[in-house]
Amino acid sequence: MAFVLPIMLEALDLACQRGHRVLFTGLSFALTAGELLLVAGPNGSGKTSLLRILCGLSQPAQGEVRWAGRRIHDLGEAFRSQLFYLGHHNGVKDDLTALENLRINAALGGDPLSVDAALAALDRIGLSGREDLPVKALSQGQRRRVALARLLVSRAPLWILDEPLTALDARAIGLIQDRLAAHLAQGGMAVITTHQPIAVEGVVPRRVELSAP
Amino acid sequence: MNAFLTVLRRDLLLAYRRRADVATTLFFFVIVVSLFPLGVGPEMDTLRTIAPGVVWVAALLASMLSLGRLFASDHADGTLEQMALAPQPLWLIVMAKVWAHWMVSGLPLALMAPVLGLQFDLPAQALAVLVVSLLLGTPVLSLIGAIGAALTLGLRGGGVLLSLLVLPLYIPVLIFGAGAVEATMTGIGAEGHLSLLGAFLILAFLATPFVAALALRIAME
Questions:
Q1: Dihedral pair phi/psi, residue A161, rounded to 5°
Q2: What would the pLDDT profile of A66-83 be if each residue is shown by its tens digit?
């Protein structure tokens, strides 16, 4: 008897339209536990649009996205509690400190963090000594790290990350790749767009190539 | 409920870090109200007659002035997206944001109003009713304003459009808010007006967070 893997995230015949331009049509894939999907394509090919459709921020022009066999739109909060999304914007407030940002974002994501746990996460991502600075005093890469510190503590099985490695140095990229490997090894899933090569030990990433419009 | 408190605390903390923004709104209110006695002249009867309307119109404008900030900065830095993807209903988060907005805009206006009312020679009883009417009415302004702020999110020149959208909807609150103070001064009693303001508040409380949440989802598409 064949062993059937449970398919968790499915995209069925997705189409995306921006204005009068069709970015992609007939896009289908399925992602199961432990799999990594890399979305590649030139600028303007709809990578970010695809990610926003997958997490339910935008509606596809056609087709649907399913989680565990049900439409994400019907699941609503039940799907959103399984999801960690990091977009182009870091989602951190300039006037709050790194520590406040991390704890507020984690609490909003339904995963409240103690001060000690938050400090430990910021320390691991290389922001020790800067926890109490307002984020506006940090560099671009450090701001990205404040946002990515969520990854270190996230328990969500599905990660959707839009260019997570932008503005990061080699050490931080290594840390994120290690965390990604651990996440996938625990049965997590990830959908990532990146222009940089991403190597996760023991995982052959699946690929979706979007062509230029 | 946890998300509600998290967002409420966050927005109050942000308002505290950006105290100047809050102070600008309050100073605007104080200055607009204070200009009228200077412009109209020291005729006590005239001042008493125009006082309720002047204070209330200034409160409407001051409350609207701060509406632009309600969602715009969260939209710009991506935190609004994170709220929309949080595993809590978005209307609950909207409610927390509106509540925080009222605490730093409507509530101080209501508390400052009696001092400003003195410039218009309002009797003590009218001052008390003015405060009560503002306490009941300004949350309605914040709640209705949230819909307008959500609808105009990300639009160029959204500020002007926002005032065109929202000010007509403020008219009933203005009529019954100012009316309550006038009624007290003429001896009719303000109960009717205040009850209606209370009814507006309940209606707005029940309906607007859902509508604003829906508008936010459309604006983020």
A1: -125, 125
A2: 998 889 989 888 899 999
CB contact under 8 A, A95 and B17: yes
Q: Could you report the per-residue pLDDT of B105-132, keeping only the tens digit for each? A: 999 999 999 999 998 999 999 999 999 9
Between B6, B13, B78, which is nearest A108 by CB? Answer: B6
Q: Which one of B16, B74, B75, B79 would you mutate to disrupt binding with A, by most A Cβ within 10 Å of its Cβ?
A: B79
Which residues are CB-contacts of A20 (< 8 A; sequence separation ≥ 6)? none
pTM: 0.91
* CB atoms near residue A133 (< 10 Å): 14
The tokens for B45 are: 């009867």
Quote the tokens at residue B72: 């715009």
| Interchain contact B88–A (C-beta under 8 A) | yes
Q: DSSP letter string over chain A? A: -PPPPPEEEEEEEEEEEETTEEEEEEEEEEEETT-EEEEE--TTSSHHHHHHHHTTSS--SEEEEEETTEEHHHHTHHHHTTEEEE-SS----TTSBHHHHHHHHHHHTT----HHHHHHHHHHTT-TT-TTSBGGGS-HHHHHHHHHHHHHH---SEEEEESTTTT--HHHHHHHHHHHHHHHHTT-EEEEE-SS----TT---EEEEPPP-
- The predicted complex's ipTM stands at 0.89
Place of tokens 């003429």: B186
Q: Which two tokens stand for residue A203?
A: 């995982």
